[in-house]
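Archive entry: two folds, one per protein. Generate the first.
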Amino acid sequence: QVQLVESGGGLVQPGGSLRLSCIASGLTFSTYSMSWYRQAPGKERELVASISRSGTSTSYTGSVKGRFTISRDNAKNSVYLKMNSLKPEDTAVYYCKATWPEYWGQGTQVTVTA
């Protein structure tokens, strides 16, 4: 059974940092590209960042470029999202996704507020 478990969310002030983690089990992690998505209240889920199977290629949505960094450790079956200079508009539930086939984690809440 495939499981993706996110952690690392929380409450942070604007300008602060968080590091999200996603640990995968039940799949051959190194054969999956990985992504982080987020969904804010009342909004559609959006792609935040992606990383290739080897970790050599990454991409980001424009609003997080230069602030967020996606990385992975295939030996630990884990993908990470380091988030710096957080803004209130980054508030959302953050999900990790493995592709392909597609698997989703349960999400972790990130709240940025003064």
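Generate the second and append.
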Amino acid sequence: QVQLVESGGGSVHPGGSLRLSCAASGCPFSRDVMSWFRRAQGRERVLVANVIPSYTTTYLLASVKGRFTAFRDNDNNTLDLQVTNLGPEDTAVYYCSRASTSWGQGTQVTVSS
């Protein structure tokens, strides 16, 4: 059974940073495309980043380019998202996904002054 557990969310002021992490189990992580999505309140879920097994980020949401970086560790089955220079528009629940078919419970990021 695939299990994805996110952590690292929190409340920060504008300009702040966080490192989100996703721990995966029960799946062939090193062969899976892993992704970060986010859903702001009242809005649809959007793809933030895709990282393929070879560690390459194949997609990054335009509005986060230069501020967010996705990392994966195939030895430890983790997917991280370093988020910097956060703004109120980044407030959302951030979800880890395996192949867009399995999902974690999400971690809340709130940016406010």
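Annotation attached to the second fold: Residues 7 and 75 are 19 Å apart (CA to CA). The first strand starts at residue 3 and ends at 7.
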